[in-house]
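dude i think i finally got it to work??
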Amino acid sequence: MAHIRQFATGATRDIDTDKIDYEGFLSPLVLEEFGRYMTANRRQSDGSTRASDNWQLGIPQDQYMKSLIRHLMEAWRVHRGWEHLDIKPILCAILFNTQGYLHEQIKRERVIRAISPIPTQVEQAQGDSHPFRHHDEDADWAHSGV
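look at this
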């Protein structure tokens, strides 16, 4: 049974309940603040400006974790009232380190999947119903040379 939406104009589309809803999941206020934070932190100690996607070249997960914990402790102190700092840049640093760690984890898992057709124990337990794995996208990525 097809699930079709029809709009007042007569236009039709498939229902979108199973599609990723970035507009609903993300906050433009947060993304704008994060963008400002990242822009402000592009200047390096030697005076040069790093590319906005420089972090995607690869930073070890251990470094992301160490920085994440330092910033989390700082945010916690501010939250508890023990330090009086603007918490927004601290939270942006937490977001950066969380995103970077996750980015490296996803890259690692994709490489492992590309070279090993044997599913992990978690994938075996989840069967074909894994909520985040889209087989076509994985296949496309594995053959793209990325």
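Residues 133-146 have pLDDT under 50 and may be disordered.
im so relieved honestly
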